[in-house]
Structure to design on (276 residues):
């Protein structure tokens, strides 16, 4: 047993192992609105059932928090799970704990860890493992696929396993220090800002609108709708559509399913009219 795991109480080590095994279902049920939220919630349930076993209302609130949007590299997902688990533990013990800081910290870590994890494990480790395996396969070695799987998965699983414990241990120590210094409010605000920046970046990169409408007179173009929109504000339509969906979701309680269907119908309609 390593020093990292040994420093954590036996009962909590058991919960962390359960979270590790459950994390393999992280993206088993993915939705456009939540991504891996259901898998994250399923992985967190052993902690929530344990920490809030005497408070049903608090447990429901914690389950609701766990069902918020979650998307990051699978290998680093358990680090966030461990950190969130340590914050849920503090929330169950301290009446004045700011529960909103849990999702704020979670959201702020998803983007940076996804960038690091994708670069290391998908961009570097996978390529190296594939290069070695391809060399073995070209020479007729039947163990090439197994070598690839071992070279890629063994380091990934080790990082994933110990990341669960590291997140939990660092989270506990970190939270105590932050509360003692009175920096929790500042941290929550900073994490919220980082989370909003990530959402803004996702909106700019994932929501697309390209108009094909062009008005011609005497064979010459007198109005190009996309150029006109870009001259006003690049990405104006994607931003407006995102804000409209947010307004309908939060203020009018329109369901995610209805919004998705609405966007699909609007896209078909605009394409039929030759606008986009």
């Amino acid at each position: 047993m390593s020093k990292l795991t040994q420093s954590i109480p036996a009962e909590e080590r058991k919960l962390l192992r359960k979270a590790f095994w459950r994390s393999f279902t992280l993206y088993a049920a993915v939705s456009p609105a939540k991504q891996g939220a259901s898998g994250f919630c399923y992985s967190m349930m052993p902690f929530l059932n344990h920490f809030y076993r005497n408070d049903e209302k608090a447990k429901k609130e914690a389950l609701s928090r766990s069902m918020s949007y979650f998307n990051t590299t699978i290998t680093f997902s358990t680090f966030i799970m461990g950190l969130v688990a340590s914050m849920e533990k503090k929330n169950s013990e301290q009446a004045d704990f700011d529960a909103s800081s849990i999702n704020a910290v979670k959201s702020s870590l998803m983007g940076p860890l996804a960038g690091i994890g994708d670069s290391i494990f998908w961009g570097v480790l996978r390529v190296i493992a594939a290069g070695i395996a391809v060399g073995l396969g070209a020479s007729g070695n039947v163990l090439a696929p197994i070598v690839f799987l071992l070279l890629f998965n063994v380091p990934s699983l080790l990082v994933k396993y110990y990341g669960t414990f590291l997140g939990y241990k660092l989270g506990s120590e970190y939270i105590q220090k932050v509360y003692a210094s009175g920096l929790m409010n500042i941290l929550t605000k900073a994490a919220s800002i980082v989370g909003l920046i990530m959402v803004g970046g996702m909106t700019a990169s994932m929501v697309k609108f390209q108009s094909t409408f062009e008005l011609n007179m005497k064979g010459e173009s007198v109005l190009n709708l996309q150029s006109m929109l870009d001259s006003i504000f690049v990405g104006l339509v994607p931003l407006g559509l995102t804000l409209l969906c947010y307004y309908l979701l939060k203020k009018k309680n329109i369901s995610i399913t209805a919004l998705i269907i609405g966007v699909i119908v609007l896209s078909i309609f605009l394409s039929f009219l030759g606008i986009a």
